[in-house]
Amino acid sequence: MQLPMQITAQCSRSSLPIALYNSKQVYAIEQAWFAQGYDSFGLMQQAAWQMAQRIILLYQQVKTQAKSKAKHHNHKVSQPSACVWVGQGNNGGDGWLIAHYLQQAGWQVQVITVGIENDNQTNDSQNSKSAISDALKAQRMALDMSCPHQRFEDMHQYQNKNARLDIALQADVYIDALFGIGLDRAPANSYKQAIVSFNSAAQQIGALVVAVDIPSGLVASTGQVFEGLAIQADITLCLIARKFGLHTKDGMGFSGKVIDIPLIPFASIEPAAILLKDGQHLTPRCQNSYKGSYGHVLVVGGNRIDGSQGMGGAAILTSSSAMATGAGKITVACHQAFHGALLSSLPDAMTIDLHEQESVEHLIKSASVVAIGMGLGRDEKAKILFTRYLKAAIAHNKTLIIDADGLYHLAALQRDKNELITQLREYSKTHNVCLTPHSGEAAKLLDKKISAIENDRSSAIHQCANIYGGNWVLKGAGSLILAQGQLYVCGAGNAGMATAGMGDILSGVVAGLLAQQDLNDEQNNLCQAVVIHALAGDMLVRQSSYDATTYDRISGNQLLIGQRGLQAQDMPAAIRHIMQKLTC
Ligand SMILES: NC(=O)C1=CN([C@@H]2O[C@H](COP(=O)(O)OP(=O)(O)OC[C@H]3O[C@@H](n4cnc5c(N)ncnc54)[C@H](O)[C@@H]3O)[C@@H](O)[C@H]2O)[C@@H](O)CC1
Ligand SMILES: Nc1ncnc2c1ncn2[C@@H]1O[C@H](COP(=O)(O)OP(=O)(O)O)[C@@H](O)[C@H]1O
């Protein structure tokens, strides 16, 4: 459902970083609270009461918006209704109590139970005693008020799997309380079917979908959705602490707008990660400065393997975006077949033949930052170049960005137990080395399957850092950044950016920012680069607070770019815009 402006504004980007926690940590926070003598059922009642109030408010906002849009107002006030789907755990307990409080507030409610045998029994022997008792207490409290309910397993949707759209339970709001942070395996049987039915029924009737704590099917600690199946929420009411999984991998796509319901104070637990949504302010340039004040980026990539078309575009994109961040000088060491193309799209850059090894080494010595690997190629000749230039960059104490084919060669060096990996790891303890794989590249670096990386991206990025040293970005929806041992999640970016060359653009932003010594550590670090890149992508598809008019490069006509068709070459203009906004 399209959410009204008031709701999106409530959840709009704030510049304050938000701490993210995994399930284990949230359970620990709860336990610490109970250890102080607070009652767990009391907390559940508090949670449900606050969520019920929030749902009433959200529904009023949706209703007001719908009315103002309708040509002929229907002034008849109808009783609002909610269909609450509950599972057997405490998340289900929250659901029962929300139904109870909404009913008390005059709503018409209908509870659909899943995996619950009858009114007085939960059927999961694995559940802890206290968890069962809280969920059961909640259930009994709702049933004592004659809360209407039915078992999903008895419904037509479940009985006749092929006709699941036949019955759509009418309700204004669909509330998902099937699973919370306790989900630890793929929903099967009636649970699986319930998630499918919930989504299709809610979509069919256009209900507002509210997830309790986390959309069911989404794993709080990883952002993974088992078998692609989870509740598609418009709004997630996140209890106690913001869950890591809401913001990375599948999380962003299933959670909708996230609203915090903090409930209890806590301070002593180190978060699993920090969510970044906005860039740091950039200090304006000093009047009395020259190009040398803003660094020299050397881009090493854009090769042409004998007989192939080559990958000159990668180097062009990296250098264009480095320039867009304000780097003072750019030299591109690429195959000479691309020098003409490069200069016609970026006349500000200098070029050198990638294969003139001594000259490139000489340039490495004078550059401030070396970005290596974009379109470098994966053949033996490219491997020799990579090894030689990497050694030169280390020997000359350069800030390094390694991406794309450079990562492929690193993985090969690691497989060969080449001592350059040990050297790199040691070097990165005292120098800035940034490595920016996507999941496929991370899989190569760790010699694992891509699915193993995707199932636990946080663990993958930590493993990369342990083996190779350095600061890392694991790219994708909700990119992870591991810098100086701290994990961050980029809360900006969109699926339009899933297109060729976007990673090359990111390398250029990292290189361009790191080259600018007039910016302090807060302003020119890896996190800042990832966020600027993502905000630029969002700006182009009008998904950010940095919206600006975009113009067609050739015709000069105003453009309305959507996610489909966003191109990497659109990015440098947007990056310039974000840089300017952050400087204001
Ligand atoms: N009293 C408390 O501690 C509070 C808990 N709260 C709620 O409690 C939730 C966590 O409760 P729980 O720990 O009971 O977790 P869940 O409500 O997510 O349920 C976990 C139960 O489901 C089972 N399960 C996991 N995956 C399954 C699958 N695929 N198929 C079938 N069964 C599966 C588990 O074995 C476990 O028994 C939070 O998300 C939050 O909604 C809130 O009420 C705040 C207070
Ligand atoms: N769905 C998405 N949401 C947010 N950001 C995305 C999404 N898909 C891709 N991106 C971003 O776009 C960039 C793509 O990089 P990469 O896969 O390396 O592209 P390429 O190899 O073609 O240059 C990364 O920064 C990534 O985080």
Task: Report the total helices.
Answer: 20
Number of domains as seen in the coordinates: 2
Q: Give the overall pLDDT as a whole number.
A: 91
* Main β-sheet description: 11 strands, mixed
Ligand kinds: ligand NAX, adenosine-5'-diphosphate
Layout of secondary structure:
Blueprint: H1 5-10, E1 18-20, H2 23-35, H3 40-69, E2 81-86, H4 90-104, E3 108-113, H5 129-144, E4 149-151, H6 156-159, E5 173-177, H7 189-205, E6 208-212, E7 235-239, H8 251-255, E8 257-261, E9 273-276, E10 296-300, H9 312-324, E11 329-334, H10 339-345, E12 350-353, H11 357-366, E13 369-372, H12 380-395, E14 399-402, H13 405-415, H14 419-427, E15 433-435, H15 439-446, H16 450-455, H17 457-468, E16 471-474, E17 480-483, E18 486-490, H18 502-515, H19 526-540, E19 550-551, E20 558-559, H20 571-583
Parallel strand pairs: 2-3, 2-5, 3-4, 5-6, 6-7, 7-8, 9-18, 10-11, 10-13, 11-12, 13-14, 14-15, 15-16
Antiparallel strand pairs: 1-9, 16-17, 17-18, 19-20
Helix pairs in contact: 3-4, 3-5, 4-5, 9-18, 9-20, 11-12, 13-15, 15-17, 18-19, 19-20
The structure holds ligand NAX and adenosine-5'-diphosphate (ADP).
Binding site for AMP: 475-479, 503
Catalytic activity: (6R)-NADPHX = (6S)-NADPHX; (6S)-NADPHX + ADP = AMP + phosphate + NADPH + H(+); (6R)-NADHX = (6S)-NADHX; (6S)-NADHX + ADP = AMP + phosphate + NADH + H(+)
InterPro entries: CARKD, Nnr, Ribokinase-like, YjeF_N_dom, YjeF_N_dom_sf
